[in-house]
Automatic annotation (TrEMBL):
Domain FAD dependent oxidoreductase: 4-388
Protein name: FAD-dependent oxidoreductase
SUPFAM superfamilies xref list: FAD-linked reductases, C-terminal domain (SSF54373), Nucleotide-binding domain (SSF51971)
UniProt key word Oxidoreductase: yes
Keywords carried by this UniProt record: Oxidoreductase
Coiled coil regions in record: none
Amino acid sequence: MAQVAILGAGMVGICTALALQERGHDCVVVDRRPPGSETSYGNAGIIQAEVVEPYALPANPLAMLRMALGWKNAVALHWPSLPRQLPALYSYWRSSSGTTLGKVIPLWHRLILEAVPRHDALIKAAGAGDLIRTRGYWELHATGAGLAAALLDAERRKRRYGIDFEAADSGMLARAEPTLRTALPGAIHWTAPWTCVAPGELVTAYADLFRTRGGRIVQADAAPLAQSGRGWRVAGEAVEHAVVALGPWSPTLLKGLGYRVPMVRKRGYHLHYGCDDGPSRPMLLADHSVVLSPMRAGLRIATAAELSVGSPPAAYPGQLARGEAAARSLFRFGKAVEDSAWSGTRPCLPGMLPLVCKAPRHAGLWFHFGHGHQGFTLGPVTAERLARAFDGDIGAVEGLDGGLS
């Protein structure tokens, strides 16, 4: 049995602790915030089974320019901070096509296939079934041409990966969502994903399961990580091994140990609104790059990506304003529940795969971060693989070392 400190109490960190604990190791989780309080709290609440290919950047520079100028509300740029991200963005763009992407997709697909079963086991063990819905989500398009193109891609994914979906025409969509105010051409119903009505609470439930099984969670700053003899010391804890699972904060901590990990940081926002007549399941508004998710706290409107490293979050960003306007054209709902928007940062690595590996130059140090948009989905999957590698099965994390040396 090894003593392990897991730095980070988000979905990835808590699942890491559970996976190592399951194998008999003595684990302590260290984070300055309670479990599930940061990025794991603020997502759209979808455990994705249909995203069998990673989010790649467009290969066409003109398409990139359209995105930069606000096409489909997908990207917002904070121009003064952009130079800090350019090297990582360039690497991301180079990885988004050709042979590199072709190598990434098979491994990404295998990870995604494991997500729902891994969560299912934890949900049952944690008694968190009341937080989960198993009816998938809608992908909506405002035009017939847009829907037709999306259906062709959905058919491609079904043929290649076996991912199921249902095509709904305008009438079928209206019957399924009777409070919808506007007639739309139809929608894609992705049936395989599960959804969560309180993502932060799901992480808390997993954390409670970890505690019930004998684990400890220490609320303290995880940043002062230092070698101590043959082990590590963090927040007053002396351990043999440490796992860095701090999401977007991981590269900053590791820089002090001599590691340079390039990362694209994508900020996302959400607000909750009072809503008694909203959608019956989450909806991706593809033409506006927002997700409408029925949550316990209200109707959550969640945005796509803002590239704004170092700048303070906006109280009500333009992406959210445009998303709210699109949502109000579809449903009647009330005022925002919160005074300002929540914001969090997705840790996206240029290679589009998470970093799950043993540190190449430090004994007893492990890396587990960089899941991009899919930390909530993939946390249990990569945690189980890290735990296997920790116990000697290095093949479990093959391809997830990010080329570190």
